[in-house]
Write a structure and sequence with these properties.
The chain is of the alpha+beta class and about 140 residues long. It contains 4 helices and 5 strands. It has one domain. It is about 35% helix and about 20% strand. A 5-stranded antiparallel β-sheet has the order 4-3-2-1-5, with helices on one face. The longest helix is centred in the first third of the chain and has 21 residues. The radius of gyration is 14 Å and the shape is globular. The chain starts with 5 loop residues before the first helix and ends in a 5-residue tail after the last helix. This is Microcin J25-processing protein McjB C-terminal domain-containing protein.
């Protein structure tokens, strides 16, 4: 893993979370289900986060995780960086808050069938990175 502090990464993630809330209305960055954030956009938001972690921190072990629950049958996505979990759409579920840099998230246990998802085509990485480099996306 690249050398950086967890505190710096967590602060970056919180800046992105604030941006995503404003972006829901302003539309600086368009992505699937942007206007319903945090609902129904966990895959897109997790990809945005993954791209930014890789770009800013040079992390090579950040992974998009897809969890599936059996009852009700549904999927949810979040990002893992080593043992840390980041889920900027966790608050779409009743009683949950965003998950920033924890090693265990009870919500993720609900989605017990977990796998690394290597698809990266739901969000335009070049657009995300260009907006980040221009300062439009704080991270």
């Amino acid at each position: 893993m690249a050398h950086f502090s967890k505190g710096a990464l967590d602060a970056s993630v919180r800046r992105l979370a604030d941006f995503l809330d404003v972006n829901r209305r302003e539309g600086t960055l368009d992505y699937p289900f942007r206007s319903s954030y945090p609902h129904n956009c966990c895959e897109s938001v997790s990809l945005i986060l993954l791209f930014l972690i890789e770009e800013r921190y040079g992390v090579s072990n950040a992974q998009l995780i897809m969890g599936t629950s059996a009852e009700p049958y549904e999927h949810h996505f979040w990002v893992a960086v080593g043992d840390w979990r980041y889920d900027l759409t966790a608050h779409q579920f009743e009683g949950q808050e965003q998950i920033v840099g924890v090693d265990d998230a009870p919500l993720h246990r609900r989605f017990g069938d977990q796998e690394i998802d290597r698809r990266r085509d739901r969000v335009d990485r070049d657009q995300v990175i260009a907006l980040y480099r221009s300062g439009a996306i704080p991270f």
